User: Which sequence fits this backbone?
């Protein structure tokens, strides 16, 4: 009964006091946002919008979780890596291929978050840090590929021991949920291939859909993951090389404005960064984030101010 030895925090929720164990080393989310207190970005790889939207789970996912399907959302580039780099830095930063990027002259979302004490982690499924805790710059680790991990593309992160500790394997997420220690900004990259075998599995919509269902559904029932959280599910880029990089993106969470059934506003991967900035009142990075359109969300203002108040 490990949890009995930990301190408990209690929440007053409509006449009921609920207590949950708290790991005192790892505080619960603390910097309140305008629309959400946590953003979880999950990036799948290589699917055309038209193919992904036909999948029975993906096409109903938004409705299951008070969400919205964005019908006019575009990737930034081909091949993959530049899309990930753009999501966290507001620019493809000169990256054109999937070879190791080591950018040394750009700021990222990490600089913005840390400037306000907002916790972050990237969970990269098969990734493991080096034994001394520093960043592992390997191209492949199991079915992890470095070109889907933009945090490794910036030397301000990959050469910083204090930041390397926030690049963690996928398994750490369940541990963090159990300890009520999920950070306020989460960037999750699944393996390119869940079951071993050919790398092309990632471009198979139905295998991506089954992976997502198994990964996401249990987590959505846990407050430590989903409470006041905006979940963004997106694809890095389309699978074909000929069209306009139209990818499926879904926003899930109680702050999503469902006044229309779907949202056809033109967004792209820079909208993620812009929404982070908007939510926590952070400055821009002076790149394409400046002109990007943030997601249209309801605010959390109607909620009790001290919804994390401590009674124990
Ligand atoms: C998708 O991948 C799974 C697992 O490898 C395979 O069984 C299935 O036939 C594939 N589907 C398509 C449409 O390629
Ligand atoms: C939701 O969006 C609609 C249409 O843009 C807007 O009129 C409405 O005020 C929004 N609702 C909230 C609660 O923000």
Assistant:
């Amino acid at each position: 009964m490990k949890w009995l030895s930990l301190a408990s925090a209690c929440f007053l929720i409509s006449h009921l006091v609920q207590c949950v164990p708290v790991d005192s080393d790892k505080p619960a989310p603390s910097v309140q946002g305008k629309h959400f207190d946590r953003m979880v970005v999950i990036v799948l790889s290589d699917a055309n919008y038209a193919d992904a939207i036909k999948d029975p789970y993906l096409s109903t996912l938004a409705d299951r979780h008070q969400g919205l399907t964005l019908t006019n959302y575009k990737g930034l580039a081909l091949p993959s890596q530049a899309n990930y780099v753009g999501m966290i830095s507001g620019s493809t930063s000169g990256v054109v291929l999937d070879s190791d990027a080591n950018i040394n002259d750009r700021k990222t979302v990490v600089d913005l978050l840390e400037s306000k004490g907002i916790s972050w982690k990237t969970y990269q499924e098969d990734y493991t840090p080096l034994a001394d805790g520093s960043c592992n710059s390997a191209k492949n680790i199991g079915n992890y590929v470095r070109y889907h991990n933009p945090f490794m593309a910036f030397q301000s992160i990959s050469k910083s021991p204090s930041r390397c500790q926030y690049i963690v394997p996928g398994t750490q997420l369940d541990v963090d949920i159990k300890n009520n220690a999920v950070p306020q900004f989460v960037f999750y990259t699944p393996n390119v291939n869940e079951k071993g075998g050919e790398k092309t599995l990632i471009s198979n919509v139905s295998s991506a859909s089954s992976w997502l269902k198994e990964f996401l559904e249990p987590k959505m029932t846990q407050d430590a993951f989903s409470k006041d959280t905006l979940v963004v599910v997106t694809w890095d880029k389309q699978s074909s090389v000929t069209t306009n990089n139209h990818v499926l993106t879904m926003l899930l969470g109680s702050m999503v404005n469902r006044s229309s059934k779907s949202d056809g506003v033109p967004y792209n991967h820079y909208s993620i960064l812009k929404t982070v900035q908007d939510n926590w009142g952070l400055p821009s990075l002076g790149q394409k984030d400046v002109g990007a359109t943030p997601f249209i969300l309801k605010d959390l203002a109607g909620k009790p101010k001290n919804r994390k108040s401590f009674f124990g």
